[in-house]
Amino acid sequence: MLNALKAFRVIAVCATLAFKIPPKMRIADWLCKYVSIPQITGALMPGPLDTKLNPPFEGLFDLLAQRHVHYFTLAKSARVGGTLFAISYVLHQIGTGAHPIFWLDPSRSSARALARRELQPFLLECPPVAEQAIVDREHWTAAMMFFRGGSFLKVAGAGSPNESAGFQAEIIVINEGDKVHHTTKGEAPAHELAIVRSKQFRHTRKIIENSTPTDEFGPTWRRFLKGSQHYCYIPCPHCGLKQRLTFFPEEKEVPFDEELNPLPPGQVRIEKTGKMFFDHCRVIERREVEPGKFEDVPTGWDYDRVLAETYYECAHGCRIEYHELNKMLRRYKWVQHNRKAPRDHVSPHYWAAYSPFEHWGEIAKKYLLAIGDFGAMHDFYNNDLGLPFKAVATEVDESDIQRLVKASPHYLLRTIPLEPEMMTMTTDVQQQGSANPFWWLVFAWGVDWSKPDWPTWGALVDYGPAVSWEQIEEIAGIRADPKGHWNEYAWKNPITGELKKIRVEAGLVDSGDQAQSEANVYEFCLSNSDIFSPSKGGSRAHLRGQLIRLTPVYDNKLQLIWYWSDVFCQTVYRRIIKDRKLCRYLPVDLNQDFFDQLTDEHTVMENGRLIWKARRKNNHLGDCWKLQEVLSGTVEEVLDEIRLRRKLAEEAAAEVAAADKK
User: Fold this and answer.
1) Which of 63, 162, 191, 354 is 20 to 30 A distant from 20 in Cα terms?
2) Please, which residues have CB within 8 angstroms of residue 81's CB and are 6 or more apart in sequence?
3) What is the DSSP code (8-state) at residue 555?
4) Largest CA distance in the chain
5) CA distance 347 to 336
6) What is the value of pTM for the model shown?
7) What is the pLDDT of residues 1-57, one digit of tens each?
8) Can you give the residue ranges of every domain in the chain?
9) Phi first, then psi: what are they for 164, rounded to 5°?
10) Is the CB of residue 462 less than 8 Å from the CB of residue 489?
11) Which CATH architecture is the domain 26-226 placed in?
């Protein structure tokens, strides 16, 4: 009996050991064990990944790993490890299971570059992943990578909806979502198209968004606000106050106490934050303000002192030096601000002050140098604070337009400054019977191949009034003029003298009230549907939060392109004319009509928000330019295809040249 009992115990122990489920390794620990940062990626610290260098990111992995979390929106500063975070999670998923994964980048060219330069080097330097990789011509390309464990990784650009169809994925990564171009095509937004790929995995899927917010209208910030709004809290090393870091002091209602414990439902308290402190770094001069009276007057900043002596002043007034940050980060805690968020949507915010690779003095110096420069301040808010830059009062004058002219290549109307790839035309429709019932504007678009980043440029080529739909067709090159001539534009090659002729390929017509009364806009667009589409500006309510929305009209024969008017006003008047953030060119021989119309629109404050209004309702060319920017996302997709074809041709030529050398 004793022997039988002993045997039973031995069997029980063996069975327990045999069927014991091993403890699940924390994602951060797995990454430290298996992941290395390849030298080829150009990282600051290549070699084995050590998540302890940036402890709050370990907490982000913990938040993402929760079973109930399916949507993860990381709003962040630039260069704080957002892409590395997404790559690391992809490595973990491939290394620990069989997961179909879809990575969406802003464009096909950026997706291909990221796959070759970052994703594949990471995959092949991670042993549990590399041993599964099927590295051959069929299974290992820039667009698709297969693994023996059952995982696959598909990489595509947001401007290629065909590449986002025909498969299902459990893990979706949307990288730098705010850089995805808006489009006038009939597809849903790229973000939504990507999420649709995960419908079969709705209980296990993870949709990871990682982007630097641009403005308050951008998709990243809007989705961040809908999510949990997690912020990183760290304790002051002197008073112990648990706080989130902010560049400027803030006051905000939060649903937890000072110990970060949740308050009863419906209760909030006012949270006061600290700030970056550098006031002591001012340059002070003693000046005579009145005869015999001297005062200390601040005259500027000692930027060397700002770099070395900036510190953080906590909400209780304690002085926290930068070298104390690492100790504080080890005691981080992510705290949710939005109790009303869906349980499955986590949205953290992470900015440069928490990064062990960003010095507080550098951040403060950049802010001081940006004061008075709208574009630089926009960059500071986005890339350093990880915050959207909100619209500010804007009024364009003639000197702003002249500065843009001087920054453009020297060219005249009806000529094109660089080799174009396509041309677009937009038309603003006024009341029939007026002196000029139409105003129109023609843009050429192309890629400056002399620059390494291949930026897209747009150039104003022609503009003016028109008196009839027939004249609009003549300008667009759809019909011949009364003398039998077909309108077209040409670029002259400065080296060979050869002419490249080009006609309008796409266009928008502002429907306004004309479509509602006589339907002539719709009839014109229907007759010329291969080029023109009707369009209409709307508010945020009309657009349902999107920048562009398509609506069937005219008995479903046409798609009306609604666009968020205020956003595209901001693009033209602030981002392009004032700040020259986008590569747009103007000719030197603009007439006074152009200046008058482009300076007519400005912002006014109504009901607590800035809106755009025209003083004399003489902003027709400005409306035409807005429509060009509505088209710009679709243009960008076409040019991205051209970029990719050229890049593939260059790579093929390089391979042939290398083979010839051998």
Assistant:
1) 63
2) 54, 57, 355
3) T
4) 116
5) 9
6) 0.81
7) 546 555 556 555 554 444 444 457 999 999 999 999 998 766 767 899 999 999 999
8) 26-226, 398-647
9) -100, 10
10) yes
11) 3-Layer(aba) Sandwich (3.40)
